[in-house]
Prior knowledge:
The complex is a heterodimer. Chain A is mainly α. Chain A has helices at residues 2-29, 34-42, 46-60, 66-78, 93-126, 130-145, 148-162, 182-219, 222-229, 234-271, 276-285, 289-317, 319-322. Chain B is built from 13 helices and two strands. Chain B has helices at 32-41, 43-61, 96-132, 134-149, 152-163, 168-178, 181-195, 198-205, 210-221, 223-246, 257-266, 269-272, 275-303, and strands spanning 6-13, 16-23. In chain B, strands 1-2 form a two-stranded antiparallel sheet. In chain B, strand 1 and strand 2 form a beta hairpin. Chain B is elongated.
Amino acid sequence: MTRYLARKITIYLLTFYVAVTIDWAIPRLMPGDPVDGLIARLHADSTASQELHGFFTESFELDQPLWKQYLNFWWGLLHGDLGPSIAYVGSSVSELIWAALPYTLALLIPAIVLSYLAGNRVGAMAARRKVLDNTVLPVAYVLTATPYVFLALLLAYFVAFQWELLPVSGAYDFSVQPAWNAEFARSFLSHWILPFLSLFLVSFGGWAIGMRNLIIYELEADYANYLQALGAPNRLVRKYAYSNAVLPQMTGLALALGVIVGGALVTEIVYGYPGVGSLLLTAIQNRDYFLLQGIFLFIIIGVLVANFVVDLLYVVVDPRTRTGLQGQQ
Amino acid sequence: MTELGHHTESVSTGTAEISVVVSEETPPRRSRNEIAYFALRNTKLVIGLTVVLFFLALAIVGPWLTDAEPFEFGFPTGQPPSWDHWLGTTAPGQDVYSQFVYGLRASFVVGAVAGCVAAVIGMAVGFTAGYRGGVVDDVLSMLTNVVLVIPTLAVLIIVSAYLSVTSLLGEAVLIGVTSWPWAARAIRAQTFTLTSREFVSLARLTGRRGTKIIVSEIAPNMSSYLFLVFILLFGSSILIAATLDFLGLGPSNVMSLGLMLNLAVSNAALQLGMWWWFIPPGIAITAVVGGLYVMNVGLDEIFNPKLRRT
């Protein structure tokens, strides 16, 4: 088990190191002077440009040798300093991201967990009932092929604008203040349902298909045939098939995390939900590079932590990882 | 996961979780007729292929059927579909049909180019790691695992923000070089099982060079698998491109389906009830990607006699 986890942690640390280096290197490797490019896009006049040039060169610390810039970058990072925001003057990048993060997590975590659980259940059920298989499978294929953006647009258009069932834009009504009371909770929930549902449905389709295929495959395996030949009840055979099918599904979960996070970002933009995705859009539109770099780092850290959680769960689910055999990678 | 005789590689591409089961025994050389026989009787393949070919035809022929340029202004503003404008017009007065067919073209181009780039890198890494083994495998697998964990979209966002991509090809190549890892891993696993087989050992005994053996002995024996990998890469690249374009990070001078969605949202098409602006591009992406996935499952059943069940 220690060997398995040690290997995983090595990969994650290495990934983090590579990601931070990419984050640092990209603005410095791009052709031309990044500061000039930045100022050109801000459309400032010439005296302002000169001021800005000095300001940005100092902020990026471009006047220092490369190795020092690199060390400073790490130093700032480890102290939680990601630089100032250009779009939101006066705020630091880390403040902005910390403020947006709870909203994104409130969407992402329930969407990931619930779609995974429900998708696996329904997929396993579809594998044993022909009727269910013929109805659920086509729907699941359509769902999994739908871009997150489009499903979000459809739900927003029909549920929010045509039928006016649920509100969009923001995380709660302007009339209420964030507080621990029923009124705020109701307002928050009504704004939360649609973005959550968009994320949930797309992921749900993928898990259902994956589980259905895996169960069918497992039921053909020798151990399943042997159990059946011994006269074991069908329920027991399916239980074993399910336990075996869960393992590749969990590997799939780790691999799909990045995609789901990307989905959450665009979903937030469609609904105007004030999470990291909306922050990202502002950063892109205002060419706020510090903010972009900060968001990039937060996404990486989030995905790495989530991967590690999946690995820990894997140890619980797969006995082979506990007994020193490596199990599935 | 590895059992005697079979190997299952579960891969996640884009939003889809698709598991490909490949028989380890070398399939006997089948005649073309047999493949065609099963292909025509496979509903999944027929449906998937029909959908994809329909949109491909639309992407090729569609632009010839209209005089309007995708970025051309001056049409009536915000009109629903009519005889003059088959899919209506946008709020600032552009022709939606023209944007739609040109955007569809862009999607296919990005998908094909990005899919090819990713497949080439994935094959290079996968074959080398699987065939050489040892330290080379360790290093390449570590590299693959590291790139696999980094979310593709995050890297693409930051790179395209700085680079300000101005061409479709540039966008496609960027997507290709970031989405190869799962393909490399899947191909490595397949190569691994093939490398230990007698005919490969025999080829090694003749003293041929490694690259030659990979090209002439290993790759042909998993050509169907490679084809499936390409289809999945094609589909996921289209989805990634749509997301990037929607974020406004794609080339702004090339009309794409994602850019249409971006423009629709930023011009309040939802609030104004202009469904004809965002529903066609959304449906097209969904149908093409869904068609590719379903086609993939169908092909898998054709190549694998074990999966051929009604």
